[in-house]
Amino acid sequence: MGCGRVGARVAAEFDAEGHDVSVVDLQPDAFRLLPREFHGRMIVGNGVYQEVQREAGGEGADIFMALANGDNRNAMAAQVAKHLLGVPRVVARIFDPERAEVYRELGVEAVNPTVAVSNLVRQAALNPARP
Amino acid sequence: MYIVIVGGGQVGAQTARELVAFGHEVTVVERDAETVRALNAELGEIAIIGDGTEVSIQEEAGVNRADLIVATTGRDEANLAVAQVAKQRFGTPRVIARINFPKNEEIFRVVGVDIAVSATTAIMAQIEQALPSTPLIRLLELHGSPFELVEVVIGEDASTVGQAVRDLPLPAESLLTLVVHADGRPEVPTGETRLTAGAAVLAVTLPEHEAELRRGLTGGA
């Protein structure tokens, strides 16, 4: 769910590795970020809703990834996939570190860009550029 | 009771007004500074600016000592986050969330939000059932009809004590069915019946007339 820069890139990578990928986004023009050779399905709709997730084939999915803008949307969508569709592994991008921790405790694999990027920035600032 | 309300829009503000009127301690968390100013001007310093889905703002609002948190925003995903953060971080004993889109009801139920409701009146009814001190309690919904049976207790200092039923400004589609006086004596009320302090009045009414009926019987705001 969410075909922004991150969503489109992750979708393209899994697709190129031969996985069966569906991408859901609210905006039809978001899919232009996908590469021309993308084989997966593109569904326009609100991925928070279980019927949109079902339409995207979420019921038999091995992984659901919520990469839209908005921590709360991502958290809710991931929990819909986990609890209502029975997707065994759900990943959500959660920018707020404290909420990311809350959702981890609730069984959502919460990826926190704030902490990750802060660490990268610190490294870049402290380590001299490599030759 | 200490109650934290997240969302100061129409639903949140009205819920806050009623709870404050019942004498509860209330904090409203609202993102919009102008809305917060208006609420504070009307109800005293009860509202704070912030995103109520954040742990730090819930902490500032005192959710850790709240008996109840009510999520009333117009965004279901925010209401779910409010509820889950409060339960998981602060162990809030009771969480009520507004649902704007009925199709979202199932996920709220599955993840353990205590009560998920879709309108102001329903939120108030749930709160009133949870609080025995409030003056209007819904007893039951009459099967196959829009009417419900409610109980209103006449307080010691209600301005209606001693008044005859026919002089009370009661809503048209409400019927007083029984008055149980404080000494336990039941009376089928007529226009002549006078309200007594501590009496319980059982009435049939429509949900939308609850507030008017309560005001008519108790003289309260």
Structural notes for this entry:
The complex is a heterodimer of chains A (131) and B (221). Chain A is α/β, with parallel strands linked by helices and 131 residues long. Chain A contains five helices and five strands. In chain A, the strands form two sheets. Chain A has a three-stranded parallel beta sheet. A two-stranded parallel sheet of chain A has the order 1-2. In chain A, helix 4 (97-105) links the parallel strand 4 (89-93) and strand 5. Chain A starts with a helix and ends in a 5-residue tail after the last helix. The mean pLDDT of chain A is 95. Chain B has 221 residues and is of the alpha/beta class. Chain B is built from seven helices and eleven strands. Chain B has helices spanning 10-21, 33-43, 55-60, 76-90, 105-110, 120-130, 210-218; strands at 2-6, 25-30, 47-49, 68-71, 95-98, 115-117, 136-141, 148-153, 175-180, 186-187, 200-205. In chain B, strands 3-2-1-4-5-6 form a six-stranded parallel beta sheet, with helices on both faces. In chain B, strands 7-8-11-9-10 form a five-stranded antiparallel beta sheet. The longest helix of chain B is centred in the middle third of the chain and has 15 residues, at 76-90. Chain B is elongated. Chain B starts with a strand and ends with a helix. The A-B interface holds A 48-51, 70-73, 75-76, 79-80, 83-84, 96, 98-99, 102-103, 105-106 and B 53-56, 75-78, 80-81, 84-85, 88-89, 103-104, 106-107, 110-111.
